Amino acid sequence: MRRHAAAITAAVSLVLLALPCASSLAQPTGIKRTVITRGDISVPNREAVVAHVELAPGATAGRHTHPGDEITYFLDGEGELLIDGAPPRRVKAGEAIIIPAGVVHDARNPGSTTTKLVGVYVVEKGQPLATPVK
C-alpha cells in the first residue's frame, strides 16, 4: 500500500510541474492544476510531468491536446471524459484514463463535489504541456 501511494504521489508530482509551464493554455475558471514534479525519462527528447488537478463541480478543462501521452488517475469525485468522435465516458475515483498524444479532448465535472486527480504526462521537451483547441 505504501509503495502504491508513493507511486501515485510521484506521478501526480510530474503532471503538476508540467501544467504551470503550459502558458499557452489559459486555466479555465474552476480548475486548479499544481505541478508536483517533472523530469527526464529514458526516451530521448521526452520528459514526464506529474500534476495534481482539482475540477470544481460543473467546471470543464476546455478542449485541448498534449504533445505526448496523458495518464490520469481519479483520486476523488467523478468526471466525464469528452474525446472528439467518441461518446462521453464517465470516470470515478479509483479509475484511470489514458489519452494518446494529439487526441482532442476535454474533461467535465458533472458531480456536486470537487474532482481530484493525478495526471502523468510523457511529453516532448520544450513543448507546451497542453494546447487549446477551438
Automatic annotation (TrEMBL):
Segments forming domain Cupin type-2: 52-120
Transmembrane annotation, as ranges: none
Recorded GO MF terms: dioxygenase activity
Coiled-coil stretches noted in the UniProt entry, renumbered to this chain: none
Species in which this protein is naturally found: Pseudoduganella umbonata
Keywords, sorted A to Z: Dioxygenase, Oxidoreductase, Signal
InterPro entries according to UniProt: Cupin_2, RmlC-like_jellyroll, RmlC_Cupin_sf
Descriptive protein name: Cupin domain-containing protein
Signal peptide segment: 1-26
